[in-house]
Amino acid sequence: MEGLWVGTITDGIGSTSGYKFEMIIEIEDKTIKGRSFVHISPDEIIEMELSGRMYEDRSIYMRDIQFIPTAGKEVPPPFNRKYQFAYDRSIWKSTLEGYWQEVRGDTFNPKRQRGKIILKKVGNSKA
Questions:
Q1: Where does the chain have alpha helices with state H?
Q2: How far apart (Å, rounded) are the C-alpha atoms in residues 6 and 21?
Q3: Which residues are within 8 A (CB) of 54 and not within 5 positions of it... i.e. 6 or more apart?
Q4: Three state DSSP letters for 107-127
Q5: pLDDT tens digits, one per residue of 91-121
Q6: Domain annotation for the chain: domains and CATH numbers
Q7: The organism sits in which domain of life (predicted)?
Q8: Does the pTM of the predicted model rise above 0.90?
Q9: Residue 23 and residue 99: Cα distance in Å, rounded?
Q10: Would you say the C-alpha torsion 4, 90, 85, 12 has a positive or negative sign?
Q11: Strands 81-89 and 59-68: what pairing?
């Protein structure tokens, strides 16, 4: 499961279009660490540090830990996210599919941002 994952992050549960999303994952025991990259435009990429856990049923919980600014792009995103994925591994392809939601104090607020993520494993590294 370690390595580069690439796919799409949507803005809204019912949305079918979105932004390019990349995630680099490292695993130690059941602890997951990594980085995420949301490609807003060719010139704007939001990079975040991630941390999480993989469970016995191959479900994954991750959350944004901190914003990683790049030169000239020091403005952080408007909110952090938490993620829930299901890991599906096969001999043809490995996928992570799930949902993200805005981290906020009032969890049940109808204005809380949410969306879907679909990722595929890139390359032949440790899937």
A1: none
A2: 6
A3: 1, 27, 30, 32, 60, 87
A4: CCCCCCCEEEEEEEECCCCCC
A5: 888 999 999 999 988 888 888 899 999 999 9
A6: 3-121 (2.40.128.120)
A7: Bacteria
A8: no
A9: 14
A10: positive
A11: antiparallel
